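@channel anyone free to eyeball this complex?
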Amino acid sequence: MSDSLKIGVAGLGTVGVGVVKILQCHGDLLAARCGRRLELTAVSARDRGRERGVDLSACRWHGDPLGLAADPQVDVVVELIGGEDGVAWALAEAAIAAGKSFVTANKALIAHHGDALARAAEDKGVALCFEAAVAGGIPVLKALRDGLAGNEISRVYGILNGTCNYILTAMRKTGRDFAAILAEAQARGYAEADPAFDIDGVDSAHKLAILSAMAFGARINFGAIHIEGVRNISALDIDYAAELGYRIKLLGIARRVSEGIEQRVHPCMVAEGTAIAHVEDVFNAVVAEGDFVDRVVFEGRGAGEGPTASAVLADLVDIARGVCAPAFSVPATALQDIPTTPMDTHVGPYYVRLSVIDRPGVIAAVTAVLRDEDISMESLIQRGRAPGEGVTVVLTVHDTREDRMTRALARIAEIEAVIEPPAMIRIIHL
Amino acid sequence: MSDSLKIGVAGLGTVGVGVVKILQCHGDLLAARCGRRLELTAVSARDRGRERGVDLSACRWHGDPLGLAADPQVDVVVELIGGEDGVAWALAEAAIAAGKSFVTANKALIAHHGDALARAAEDKGVALCFEAAVAGGIPVLKALRDGLAGNEISRVYGILNGTCNYILTAMRKTGRDFAAILAEAQARGYAEADPAFDIDGVDSAHKLAILSAMAFGARINFGAIHIEGVRNISALDIDYAAELGYRIKLLGIARRVSEGIEQRVHPCMVAEGTAIAHVEDVFNAVVAEGDFVDRVVFEGRGAGEGPTASAVLADLVDIARGVCAPAFSVPATALQDIPTTPMDTHVGPYYVRLSVIDRPGVIAAVTAVLRDEDISMESLIQRGRAPGEGVTVVLTVHDTREDRMTRALARIAEIEAVIEPPAMIRIIHL
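replying in thread with the prediction:
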């Protein structure tokens, strides 16, 4: 059997401890699968004294994570600190510069610096791996890089944030509103005290940027992604979605179009018959569409100690076996600068919910705006009657270009009898 | 860029032509992904003159597939002929003996000879790959071998045969009986003229044997698999399943238990809320459960030109990149002889459908048998009344050992008022 692969882990939070547990619990199994042992030789964390439920007495301890990059007893640095810049980035650069392979679960780091890091890793002939950065335990990056490598991918999309999916699922099951469910999710530890990163779609966008680069061989352009979160989804929207045969999901969608790539994160209405509609609670799912394989769906846990550590181990196994596939499926020098198409040019059906005063002429005014923008209505629902008072009107429209829809919604908002800003959710053909 | 990988394809049926199409259509993309070109240098098929819609003029032609194993212009032999023995097996042995890597979509070959072929390939230091043998385009073998390699797998199961799933789906949607749907499936080309291999579960069992070896590091023991097909599923069973909150699926299930491994293919009632229940028509799905990753679901097309060729390409990409993971995730010499537990020791809930004469005392006689075998009933449904005539009685029972259930059903069949052999379907906790 070859020499062991010597592993240094930076960051001993939930995922770091999970990685240590797998290495300690499955030592023989991993050795059989890799043809060599995976050996935890060094760790780095802030507080050496903290009880973590794992025995670290055989490991070297580095108070400064950068010490791992300089440690001759480390072949691979596993970064589980987090953050797009700061120490995580410094550690990545130092480890690669020192000729060590680098494994991370840090989506922000890869979404912002993945291109430069991949170039550096290729120059040094070391591996850069980040399976755990997207969709937790689901080995979807490897699937795109290896399992679907015979395909040109036309679209990849998914439920990439478990917190948002938990909230949307709970809203649907209980009928309660966003704020109440968020508070409950925070109490249960499914949402952070500062939930902005998750619920405003930034976390999903980080993951989408990585998926998109892997699927299309495109250089990452995180800043070009259109991002909306789930804060404005109301219990009413969830109800109407059900009535119309849809469920609301926060999706990250990347799609090859003739002018470039669509890259967007926003709430979507997806038909109830689709696989993605049935992915509930904290589960994640990714769907890839290739020209030969057609549609493949991957579903599993997108976060947590075990699933994320499982993905980190998949990378370590690759490295131990000597697998040397390019980080983004093609060499970093071959990544293309493919433009991200502006959201204004998106075409699709839309759902719109209005609060209007129930009086003659309102619907005529709304539909006149749609007609003026050449928007074709598919359905209109008004529940109940309350002459002279506020009622909800929901309408769906056929395929429409986003800029037309935006103009129409601005004009509708100006109609005097429309008493709240219109709510809009895109309907997605899957 | 390194030398090209020279590929010889044996068998130019649907899948073979699909492989040629991908190689010709995605030459540059594959070269970028692999760091070298994938070059089709030779082919073998029976009829050289047949029009196949692909240009083979640049390839060497071998009338005898074994010629590929001897061709110095071939690095990898791709076997798409089929059949567990005969020329496919001879070609596998010859190619590996000649120091060539061997890729196949042939599940029967691997289920019967995979162990010996893996040993031979390891001795020669060449690759043996068969991603296309299980679940078509879904890269599930790689997921088990690589993506989930940090886990001990406790259970792997799935819908492994698209023909059966199409038939069961159509029965559910139309209410028609098995024979009518099978005839229609044959007319549409979804079922073979001789459908026995598919509908009797043998094809699913071949795939299960491979999944099981990959998941558990167990030496393949195809003969030990319990196999039942879908011939005896009636429209009545489909109806009652829906009434009870289940769908009927033909599953292949392999599960690690303390005494060994359960390996079985049979119709199952699965709860409607599960991901697998929503996998319809010709789609396949595989679910893997690991100790750290929890549950991961993979869904996609299990057959057809494009999906199967996509899986073959995934193997060729691995080989071109120099990936050298063991065929069954651990070296063939490390595969363990793990006993397959007898079906008699299976424990689970059951569904039973009886045709009985509607007269006093029948239910008492049936339930007395259950009591005598210590079987605990969960529900009993009798639809309609027809004193003195035949009616259907459906019952479900809580967790029961299979041998008790078998004895009970034999005794129930002997009750005079029971006028047809009882139908039994296992309910599966997922």
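from a first look: Chain A has three domains: 5-133, 140-301, 348-427.
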